[in-house]
Specification:
Blueprint: E1 17-20, H1 22-30, H2 37-48, E2 54-59, H3 62-70, H4 74-84, E3 90-94, H5 107-119, E4 124-127, H6 138-147, E5 150-156, H7 165-177, E6 182-187, H8 194-207, E7 212-216, H9 223-232, E8 237-240, H10 254-263, H11 272-289, H12 303-306, H13 310-322, H14 329-342, H15 352-366, H16 375-382, H17 394-401, H18 419-425, H19 434-442, H20 444-455, H21 465-470, H22 491-500, H23 506-509, H24 538-541, E9 555-557, E10 562-565, E11 581-582, E12 587-593, E13 596-601, E14 606-611, E15 618-619, E16 624-630
Parallel strand pairs: 1-2, 1-8, 2-3, 3-4, 4-5, 5-6, 6-7, 7-8
Antiparallel strand pairs: 9-16, 10-12, 10-15, 11-14, 12-13, 14-16
């Protein structure tokens, strides 16, 4: 282990703790979350020996991407990581009442998710709310404490006329009173200047009794200097990653920070040789995982204007590329600050970064500001995500909400318990463990797609979207995708299978209250020898949009590339039926694009003659989705 170079007495040297974000935020920021479980497991033993304070390795976008893109079970990833990493606490990013999704979830889902995450190996939960609305953190922090985890509160740092040091300190003190064990300043866009870091950390250290940690992105190039000032002002821990995964929209390099702080007399306890081995591993992996549309800039000074966070930068490029509009990214970046101001200066962190960013994309692609509004934007304006930091522009609110009134209560107070209904909606043959029900609650369509894909025999499974992305590179020798059998007989999997396998009668026994966090009753059911093949998931089965159907007469066309849905969620009625009439402005169907659901509304009164796409089909921009007759 290393020692501070200039410390006369290492035993008295101040301690600086290092959280390694390589396994979560770094690859989310630079690789669009493309890291596979096997990528992590092959180097994890060495990472575990490096002497880090914690390993951020789960949460954020990793959960969604595992199911949607990689066709992996995120719960199994967590269990496998915990089986190897025995020395270093595992850490996740939890979006408060949003958990890992893009909206608020019922309290029973929140409590049970946190409980299962802790049971499966999670130690530290960094809990944040995009709006810094502590009403959305209260139950999340309580759930972590109940599960025996370390509850780290968070303030999302941003710059606006309404965000001040005094306001941030007030938010932090409220979280401390809620039971937070530590506090993180989350500078997701890399806009915290060194002077601002010194002032903010100094104020927090003076007012709080809990430790302060700093998380910054390198987008603007200021993060290393900001870390130094923050630590000098009393921050006890910082987030960073190995050099090859650092920089730009990711975090500062561990190697750089070790040189700076150990030379300044701080004790980190980090083994430099282990870090070198970790960095060499990801340097070799980089050509296979970094997207072709990845950033090439070293510093983006424009972030000081548009404030887009690290993880959003790579995803925004990916989303525009999917829409065939990557050349319009400049227009989107100019529109984004305008949208943020209209919506009351929310911090640009998931899910509000996604809402503001996608709305900016919609404003540019649709050619009309707020002419096309995803359901998530409407929910935000209605108050279903919490209180906006500043009032929302009245004209924009009226255009989006019409005559609807916004809510003023804690959004989750309006949500009934979700777990009983979710268990009833699921086909027991698709469920292998209780964790699957939580995955379904968070991402219904995505989880169902993964479950159906998983239920197929390995030889019958279509290539995952991840494999399809790499297909051109594997054209000469395309091996069959490696996948576990439907009935996994490994000891670890069998242990969890016994806990929740095939919960056929779970729904009738659920008695969970909205905030109890009580364990779900589990019923052992015989495991079939092999699962009956079912239709493949839409994403896997339809890698390209279905061929448009030739039709005479008027049609409702897809405004952008995405996935066509007839209803807003599994188990809910269709928005419109064939043969029925709709009024101008009535929702007809949904196109999911860029992870948000966009209601496609009738331009004027019409009758739906026939839908030309099936629920779950991929559609291309301009493709007819329904034939209609004007009324």
């Amino acid at each position: 282990m290393t020692t501070p170079k200039n410390a006369k007495n290492a035993a008295k040297a101040p301690r600086l703790r290092i959280t390694d974000t390589t396994l979560r935020d770094a690859h989310q920021s630079l690789w669009a979350t493309r890291m596979r479980t096997d990528d992590i497991l092959q180097i994890l033993a060495d990472v575990d020996n490096a002497g880090y304070y914690s390993l951020e390795c789960w949460g954020g976008a990793t959960f969604d991407v595992c199911l949607r893109f990689l066709r992996e079970n995120p719960w199994e990833r967590l269990r496998q990581m915990k089986a190897i990493a025995r020395k270093t606490p595992l850490q996740m990013l939890l979006r408060g009442q949003n958990i890992l999704g893009y909206r608020n979830y019922a309290d029973d889902v929140l409590y049970r998710f946190v409980s299962l995450a802790a049971e499966n190996g999670m130690d530290i939960f960094r809990v944040f709310d995009a709006l810094n609305d502590n009403r959305n953190l209260e139950h999340a922090l309580a759930a972590v404490k109940k599960a025996g985890g370390h509850a780290q509160g968070t303030i999302c740092y941003t710059v606006s006329p309404v965000h001040t040091v005094e306001k941030f300190v007030q938010i932090a003190k409220e979280q401390e009173s809620m039971g937070a064990d530590s506090l993180c300043i989350k500078d997701m866009a890399g806009i915290l200047s060194p002077a601002a870091a010194r002032e903010l950390v100094g104020a927090l250290v003076r007012k709080l009794k809990i430790p302060v940690q700093l998380h910054c992105h390198m987008t603007s190039g200021m993060a290393v200097a900001s870390y130094y000032e923050a630590v000098q002002a009393g921050a006890g821990a910082v987030d960073c990653c190995v050099a090859t995964m650092s920089g730009y929209s990711s975090q500062p390099a561990i190697e750089t920070l070790l040189a700076i702080f150990e030379d300044a007399g701080y004790m980190t306890g980090v083994d430099h040789h282990a870090v070198e081995k970790e960095n060499a591993y990801f340097l070799a992996l980089k050509p296979k995982r970094e997207p072709t549309h990845g950033a090439v800039e070293v510093v983006d000074v424009d972030v000081l204007e548009h404030h887009i966070p690290g993880g959003m930068i790579s995803n925004l490029r990916s989303q525009l590329q999917q829409q065939g509009a990557l050349d319009r990214i400049g227009e989107v970046l100019e529109e984004l600050p305008r949208v943020r101001k209209d919506l009351g200066y929310p911090s640009l962190v998931t899910p509000t970064s996604q809402i503001v960013g996608v709305q900016a994309v919609m404003n540019i692609l649709a050619g009309e500001r707020y002419g096309m509004v995803p359901q998530e934007t409407k929910d935000y304006v209605k108050g279903l995500y919490g209180r906006s930091p500043a009032p929302i522009d009245a004209k924009v609110a009226k255009k989006i909400l019409g005559g609807e009134k916004p809510i003023t209560c804690r959004p989750a107070d309006l949500l009934p318990p979700r777990l009983p209904a979710a268990a009833k909606e699921l086909d027991p043959k698709l469920i292998q463990a209780e964790e699957d029900i939580l995955s379904y609650c968070l991402f219904p369509e995505v989880a169902l797609g993964y479950f159906k894909w998983r239920a197929l025999l390995p030889a019958e499974r279509p290539l995952s979207p991840a494999d399809l992305e790499n297909a051109p590179k594997k054209a000469e020798a395309a091996p069959a995708p490696v996948a576990a059998s439907v009935v996994d007989t490994s000891a670890e999997s069998m242990r969890f299978a016994e806990i929740g396998r095939l919960v056929a009668s779970l729904a009738s026994q659920l008695g969970v209250t909205a905030s109890s966090g009580a364990a779900l009753p589990l019923v052992p059911v015989a495991v079939p020898a092999a699962a009956k093949p079912v239709a493949p998931a839409p994403e896997a089965a339809k890698a390209v949009p279905a061929a448009p159907v030739a039709v005479n007469g008027p049609t409702i066309n897809a405004p952008l590339n995405g996935t066509f849905y007839r209803s807003s969620a599994p188990g809910k009625p269709n928005l419109a039926e064939e043969g029925t009439s709709v009024k101008a402005g009535d929702p007809v169907c949904i196109v999911e694009a860029m992870k948000l659901f966009n209601q496609i509304k009738a331009e004027k009164a019409c009758r739906i003659v026939k839908f030309l796409a099936k629920h779950g089909d991929h559609v291309a921009k301009g493709q007819p989705m329904a034939s209609i007759e004007w009324l």
